[in-house]
Amino acid sequence: MDLAFLVVEWLGKPAWMWLSFLGIVVALLAFDLGVLHRDNREIEVRESLLLSAMYVGLGLAFGGWVWWQLGAELGMNYLTGFVVEKTLALDNVFVIALIFSFFAVPRIYQHRVLFWGILGVIVLRAIMIGLGATLVAEFSWVLYIFAAFLIVTGIKMLVMGDKEPEIGQNPLVRFMRRRFNVTDEHHGQDFFVKKANPQTGRMVWFVTPLFMALVMVEIADVIFAVDSVPAIFAITTDPFIVYTSNIFAILGLRALYFALAAMIHRFQYLKPALAIVLMFIGSKIFVADLLGLEKFPAALSLGVTLSIIAAGILYSLWRTRKPEIAA
């Protein structure tokens, strides 16, 4: 059997690297769906934390392999992208919790929505990153647009604060309710159900609130990808590093959701820290040009990013700690 295709380069890296990564992702998804969560059930906080630790460990281990295989600079770029995307995912958890609350999704079926949501994310991110890589390869000045966008986004996040999105007023929710048959109640784990039309009596397909929640989760990821994809391209333009760091950070989002949803209020100062990180990442390109550097040092970028996010987490935990009970 001719295995020469394995060393053929695709998007800057040998095919065997891409196939190895995709094999790991498929194996993790199969293990999650086929072994851990074969049946619908509620995920407790302890299990959520253990699974999250496993996914973070795998993501960091893959980063170690990138460091060993491709060098220290790409390894640090991967870790920086992984940390930034993981932090953005924390903000995404807050929006997902609002979506589940609005559509009254039972906890027993939330994992099902998140699982199919992750599959959609893997495909959508591949498309967006592919388009971004093509644009950057053809027009290098696009990086400056990405950088300026990140600075503006960071400033906007600081100014707007924690303003909650109004799910009920979302144009897509109103469109689906206007154009499709939508049930008022859930029908177990079904996204679609066939029932009698109340006006004609004919059996027709209805969309359930579970499917509407899935659509909104996918749309939420597209919106967050508008921030995260430019952010990772401002860190590195290597498509392999961009995609793998994104996907490894997102893979653990399902597990992380059930732990964070119960204590999201403890991280209320993380968003300003994330806003500062986005502004820092966006400004790196301009700073490197001003200093006459070919690239902003990867080690410094990783150190600053970790420091800002760690400060945001620690300050949040300190400010939201329980007051001591007087004796």
From TrEMBL:
Keyword Nucleus: no
Principal subcellular localisation of the protein: membrane
Residue ranges of the TM segments: 15-36, 48-68, 88-106, 113-135, 141-159, 204-225, 240-260, 272-292, 298-318
InterPro entries given in the database record: Integral_membrane_TerC, Integral_membrane_TerC_rswitch
A cellular-component GO term for this protein: membrane
Membrane topology type: Multi-pass membrane protein
Entry's family note: Belongs to the TerC family.
Record's protein name: TerC family protein
Lineage start: Bacteria, Pseudomonadati, Pseudomonadota, Alphaproteobacteria, Hyphomicrobiales
Keywords (A to Z) from UniProt: Membrane, Transmembrane, Transmembrane helix
Subcellular location: Membrane
